[in-house]
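Example 3.2
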Amino acid sequence: MVDTLTVTDAAQLLQTSEVDVIDVRDSHEFAAGHVIGARNVPLDALRADPDVALPRRDVALVFVCAKGVRSLTAAKLADRLGYDRVYSLDGGTNAWAQADLPIVSEQRAAA
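Structure, written as tokens:
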């Protein structure tokens, strides 16, 4: 079963449990800003090879995107594959940033 998390619930879960935070946006979206500790697995890559994208079954999976649509799609896929603790961040990184929770952006060095 997929549970949808508010940003408050997600922040608490990240502090109290071992969690694999998976940002399913494209790499350029991820580089622009993402939840601390998230790893980037674009939704297309997840669909193409979920066994490689989701190697651990012993931790909770929290899927994140910009608004919560792609993350819900990814979470439903993981649920169908038999993962036990699967979450989607409601409102995505947009809601996370609006709640003034920390966002990491990858700065590009000037050439």
